[in-house]
Specification:
The chain has one domain: Electron Transport, Fmn-binding Protein, Chain A (Pnp Oxidase, Chain A, Roll). It is built from six helices and eight strands. Strands 1, 2, 3, 4, 5, 6, 7 and 8 form an eight-stranded antiparallel sheet that branches.
Length: 210
């Protein structure tokens, strides 16, 4: 699976891509099963050395078949913030009128091979870790041990762990870099004044060092 990627939108810095994955962990995972494109939406965690992605799926999920096939290749796509950009924001509109709308966005693509992790202890630790990571975002302290143990065991028996060995990790950050400096700054100003949270997230990416 390839992505159209002009050089000025290319991001290869592992730290920047790891940050996007941490902030937007719900991935789109795509792989080929017998000529059919299988697509799933799963939260994933990036390993500390940024070489692997970990998650879990239902045992009935077709990804289990893919992982056991002769072609376990997958692409995990992480979508960061995105925003419509109106040409009315551009100062250059006043000069020639030769401007059109566009869409800014930041994404990361991880290509690799998927395998299953059929280890109850690993799975429990993984699910607990994922919960501990995301609960504070909602000012909550819920933990896996808060649920009845019999129920937890029943739920764990229905899922299986996955590991994606990353062969390629690349980002496309389309953030108005191709516009004149005055147009870029005008977009930043307009986003700063917007009450929409999604546009504030885009602003953070446009202002972050690349």
């Amino acid at each position: 699976m390839t992505m159209y990627l002009p050089k000025h939108f290319l991001v290869e810095d592992p730290a920047i891509l790891a940050q996007l994955i941490a902030e937007y962990p719900l991935a789109i995972i795509a792989g080929n099963i017998d000529g059919h494109l299988e697509v799933n939406h799963l939260p994933l965690m990036l390993s500390a050395d940024r070489t692997k992605l970990y998650g879990h799926i239902a045992k009935m999920n077709p990804l289990t078949k893919l992982a056991s096939s002769g072609n376990p290749s997958v692409t995990a796509i992480f979508n960061g913030p995105n925003a419509y950009v109106t040409p009315s924001w551009y100062p250059s509109k006043q000069e020639s009128g030769k401007v059109v709308p566009t869409w800014n966005y930041a994404v990361a693509h991880a290509e690799g091979t998927i395998k299953l992790i059929d280890d109850p202890q690993w799975l429990r630790s993984h699910v607990s870790q994922m919960t501990d990571i995301h609960e504070p975002t909602y000012q909550s302290t819920w933990k896996l041990d808060d649920a009845p143990e019999e129920y937890v065991q029943t739920m764990l028996k229905a899922i299986i762990g996955i590991e994606i060995d990353i062969k390629s990790l690349v980002g496309k950050f389309k953030l108005s870099q191709n516009r004149p400096a005055e147009d870029f700054e005008a977009v930043v100003t307009q986003l700063r004044h917007s009450p929409k949270e999604a546009l504030q997230e885009m602003l953070q990416y446009m202002r972050a060092p690349k």
